[in-house]
Amino acid sequence: MRIFTAPLTAFMLGTFMVPEGASAEKPTATKEDKAEGLKIAKTYDKRNQGFKDEVATLKMTLTNANGESTERAMRMWTYEVIDDKRGDKSILVFDTPRDVKGTALLSHAHHVDPDDQWLFLPALKRIKRIASANKSGPFVGSEFAYEDITSSDIEKFDWYYLRTENLDGQECYVLKRIPLYENSGYTKQISWIDTKHYRLQKVDYYDRKDSLLKTLRMKGYKLYKDKFWRAETWEMTNHQSKKSTVLAYTSRELSTGLEEDEFTKGRLKSYGRG
Amino acid sequence: MRTIVWILIALTVLPLQAKSDVKIGGFAAVETRAFLEKPQHTRQRHGHGPGLILEPEFYSQSADTKTSFSFRPFLHLDPHDSRRTHGDIRQCDLLLVRGDYEVGIGASKVFWGVVESYHLVDILNQSDAVESSLDLEEKLGQPMIRFSVLKPWGTLRFFYMPMFRERIFVGKKGRLRGPFTVDPGLTTYDHPAGKYHQDFAVRLEKVIGDWDINLSYFRGTSREPILTLNSTQQRMASHYKVIDQGSLEVQYTRDAWLWKGEFFARSGHGRAILAGIGGFEYTLYQIRGTDWDLGLLTEYHRDNRSSMAPGVSMEEFVFVGTRFSANDTDDTEILLGCVFNTKRASQSFSVEAKKRLDDRLKLEIEGRLFGEANGASAGTKKDSHIQAKLAYYF
Question: What CATH superfamily classification does A8-271 receive?
């Protein structure tokens, strides 16, 4: 079974595109502007810093082209790491499907180096260190690829500001980002961030042949701790396979006081017992 | 004594559980086997199923995950072999996580190891050789007290095991056995304390960058019996000795490569035994533009044990395997393997496939094909079979 790498966190939490201070001056360029793109990318990155940790329960609904769907329930613990080289740490535990109940994944993200990942398999009581070289493969059979839920670090992309436009009644920056890391399944991603709160609203993913592959919509934004915007629902639609995956948060709490040393290989087994 | 241990565990654990929600997990399964050839030993039945396996789990965990309890009884009902009809308490333990420390009390399973084809250094739990007479992967619950210290420099674990569980074997009507059955009534121990020899183990687990390194030491009753033929009764008797075993597991993880090794040095069975297994797993991701992954595995095992030591099915072998993952919503996976016994020029082939049929139903198919064999594996050379297991998860 394939699983989330660490900063499902970073991306899911929406650290993705939130400039520092909503009053930051708005870009004025009209064509592809690399400097402006990077400026927006850098500021949204900083904007989300300081959430410390997050404890969440999630439900993932996978729907195939015939409209048949299956669900999986997960719990997730995330610890924020602010560092030049290291990214966030996270533990993800599956509650359903029932045959994989208790399967737990520990991830230590890195900005440039590959992430470190360990998987706990409850039936064998075994912890396996697993390779994280796979970027573009599907995550637990869903329409989310690994790189969709990791790799949000701004250093991993070239950024371009394209334009400002209205999306469903909200004024949005439209940015293009091009993956710099190896083995990406995408030539580019186009993202929409609202100019008011700098929340990621939509992403279009273009495959290796540069044709539109998937669209992600982020819905139901809620404000946590008066500072951090979080989308309660993530909808990923694959235009080519006609399959879709909806990821919904059923509960979420920030800054709960988790310690970094809870995110170790030695601790992973105790998370898988629940 | 054994009953007392269980009662003590129950008394410790049950009051704690009264105030929290107990959930149910685990599974019930129907299993059926088909053997390709007639049995070679007298009194063996053909051995086709169906059998019933029950392994429910009653568990509870506090919201902060710091306190948890798990009770996992096991029952296998087999229509042919009365020894294969057996029960066990796979797990019944309480785990407390407090700061940098962890304490586990009760019957549990602890796995040591990194390689795929053979579990060389895994020693704390006795094998359920009825469930898994070939790979010995299924384990009996081991009563123990575990204490762990989790620090940034690594994890140090201590294990105290007050009671030994002897290996259980298939009966005379069962397949996948040698010419003689093992009689549990004939079991003997070298040590006067017998099965109540107090076993102890300590283990250091460390992660250094891309390296995972585990160092372990075990002193206690060997989990491997020395089997001798009781000539008057035409049955095998198990004899257990106390051993010392030091072991090392190493894994290096880089890109799509996993390099693995396990080694042990053991004394107590005549001259010291040195054994090792090492190899790699390389994964090809998204082959030919699909979502499919293909893992390629190769492992080499060698063991220098003398005739004084418990027999192993192979002292030297090469394993070549491939793991196919469809990465679909059903987690379809197929593992094909081939073991070449380099010393005795024999081979065996295995296939394991699994697929989820719906949220609670899972199908597992397993096949074993034995080539020409002599020596220790000759007893099962007519036991090539295919097995299907349909499990319903609670």
Answer: Lipoprotein localisation LolA/LolB/LppX (2.50.20.10)
